[in-house]
Task: inverse folding
């Protein structure tokens, strides 16, 4: 698993444990405020709000609540109000009929919906993919639960409570791109476990999908992902693209 740097900004707003529930849904939020004010807000007991993690527009990662505990970001009930479980767009929320905080991991992304509609900066997007990979690995390590990288398990607050938070995180939030990159990163991690590669050969998350494709289709050896491309390597890659239609016989030489 790729190591990432996470700074602790612990919130007092949480419940110890998860009442025997296992987290299997990752919920994305927009903070509707800028850092550090948004971080200070979840650290304020009066706010009664918290996320497990927060991500700044510059890609900084903060941990506010231990993943083993229940954060206060996706609260639902059965009271008939706007946050009633029965209004959820997710079958899991409707069927379980309990407070969604118990089985979710929450991420707050810095942003103002009025201006961004949930769009992330490039650094936020890369941090989101790395953080979600970290969360999935942690959940599997602690509970033995695999969180699928799909839109049933990587969701927005609006999917949990559409009447309560219809604009969280926003229509421009890049769910599809995050999921695609998360799947590619997971595929790369699986490949690296059974190959000759070491952690220094793992590409950045945004390049993982292309890197796996190049290894499979262009016969790159999967090393030196962050090195400069030489002219002879560039010509070899162009030649291989030209020869793809020739099939395996057209792709015999290797790039080291």
Result:
């Amino acid at each position: 698993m790729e190591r990432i740097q996470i700074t602790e900004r612990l919130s007092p707003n949480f419940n110890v444990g998860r009442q025997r529930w296992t987290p299997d849904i990752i919920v994305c939020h927009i903070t509707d405020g800028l850092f550090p004010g948004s971080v200070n807000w979840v650290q304020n007991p009066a706010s009664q709000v918290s996320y497990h993690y927060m991500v700044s527009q510059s890609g900084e990662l903060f941990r506010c609540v231990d993943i083993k505990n229940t954060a206060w970001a996706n609260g639902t009930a059965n009271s008939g109000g706007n946050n009633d479980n029965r209004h959820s767009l997710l079958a899991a929320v409707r069927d379980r009929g309990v407070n969604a905080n118990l089985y979710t991991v929450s991420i707050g992304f810095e942003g103002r919906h009025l201006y961004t509609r949930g769009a992330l900066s490039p650094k936020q997007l890369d941090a989101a993919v790395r953080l979600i990979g970290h969360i999935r690995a942690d959940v599997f390590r602690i509970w033995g639960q695999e969180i699928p990288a799909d839109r049933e398990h990587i969701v927005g607050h609006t999917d949990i409570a559409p009447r309560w938070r219809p604009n969280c995180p926003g229509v421009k939030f890049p769910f599809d791109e995050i999921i695609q990159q998360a799947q590619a990163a997971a595929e790369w991690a699986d490949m690296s476990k059974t190959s000759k590669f070491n952690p220094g050969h793992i590409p950045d998350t945004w390049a993982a999908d292309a890197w796996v494709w190049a290894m499979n289709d262009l016969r790159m050896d999967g090393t030196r992902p962050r090195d400069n491309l030489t002219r002879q390597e560039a010509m070899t890659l162009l030649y291989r693209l030209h020869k793809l239609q020739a099939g395996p016989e057209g792709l015999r030489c290797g790039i080291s």
